[in-house]
Write a structure and sequence with these properties.
By secondary structure, the chain is an alpha+beta fold. It contains 7 helices and 15 strands. The strands form 2 sheets. It has an 8-stranded antiparallel β-sheet. The chain has a 6-stranded antiparallel β-barrel with strand order 10-11-12-15-14-13. β2 and β3 form a beta hairpin. α1 crosses α4 and α4 crosses α6. It is flat. The protein starts with 5 loop residues before the first helix and ends in a 15-residue tail after the last helix.
């Protein structure tokens, strides 16, 4: 997990303050949440619980009606409550654990069950920066998957490194048959790859693209459909195919890799722009503080009168 600036954390908090995410298997895996290390604490005791969803304002947990957690949380004196969350930083392997102070605002049966209840825990203060960064990156990736869906990234040595893509060689499974190919560009909505084959037998076929990433090390499978297949000029055996991803089944881990790359590029561009602006400001300040230099410039720019050409002595 990269280190977000306070400005970035504030942006996440303000922009996604009320956006609630449900912890599906895909989200749990993408965020590195350890469900076995999630606890609710109350009255000096703690109990394991299931985290159902969270935002930057509240969390919803599931507990059993016959356990000590339910009895403590259902107390009429509205005791002080905190939820303990545990994530693994998939880049460094470090464990990130923190507590969030809450108060119980609602309890209701889980899917009409008599044995389980959903407890809504309202945060009593802004949550820790770790939670804002972890969840904020995910929400930003989902937002950019829609807003920047067609923005393509050319695969080069530099982009591979920043994406965490191990190599451009990959596998496309077309109608259950693995085909070795080379990826040329990717986006949130699709990819373009080169492979050996006849174009007329590839178009409109279902395809799953498998890409190998690092940090964390994983092979991500993205289902889609081949929307075009064109022969490479000068070659009758190599095709360039365009795969349109099934947007409802694009793994979150792929979105996070691509979003991290786009964020890095944006920061680099902003940094270069800031440097140019700083240089301009410094130059303007120097000119303003040295009026003699400003007056000397026009004099230096005045044209020098042309001198008559020398006449040789034998022609005088």
């Amino acid at each position: 997990m990269g280190i977000a600036t306070s400005q970035q954390l504030t942006k996440y908090y303000d922009q996604y303050r009320d956006t609630e995410i449900t912890f599906t298997k895909d989200i749990i895996r993408a965020l590195g949440l350890d469900p076995r290390q999630v606890y609710v604490k109350c009255n000096g005791a703690q109990w394991p619980c299931i985290i159902n969803s969270t935002s930057f304002q509240l969390a919803r947990i599931i507990v059993g009606t016959k356990g000590g957690a339910f009895a403590a949380l259902a107390s009429k004196d509205n005791p002080t409550v905190s939820i303990r969350l545990c994530f693994m930083d998939q880049e460094s392997g470090e464990i990130i654990t923190f507590l969030v102070s809450c108060r119980v605002t609602k309890m209701q049966p889980y899917m009409n069950s008599k044995d389980l209840v959903v407890v809504t825990l309202q945060f009593t203060q802004r949550p820790p920066d770790d939670l804002i960064e972890i969840v904020g990156r995910l929400l930003e990736a989902n937002a950019n998957a829609v807003r920047r869906r067609d923005e393509r990234v050319q695969i080069t040595e530099d982009s591979k490194r920043k994406l965490g893509l191990v190599k451009e060689e990959c596998v496309a499974i077309i109608q259950s048959v693995p085909r070795h190919c080379v990826v040329r560009d990717i986006s949130f909505s699709g990819a373009r790859v080169l492979l050996i084959g006849l174009s007329q037998f590839l178009a409109n076929k279902e395809a799953t693209l498998r890409l190998e990433f690092e940090d964390p090390s994983e092979v991500i499978s993205i289902p889609g459909t081949i929307v075009s297949a064109d022969l490479i000029q000068g070659r009758k055996d190599i095709c360039a195919i365009s795969i349109k991803f099934d947007e409802n089944n694009v793994p979150l881990s792929y979105k996070l890799h691509l979003n991290n790359y786009l964020s890095t590029i944006k920061k680099t561009q902003l940094s270069a722009s800031d440097q140019i602006e700083a240089q301009r400001a410094a130059q303007a300040k120097a000119e303003a503080s040295n009026p003699q230099a400003q007056g000397a410039a026009p004099q230096a720019a005045q044209p020098v009168p042309a001198q008559p050409a020398a006449v040789p002595s034998d022609q005088a």
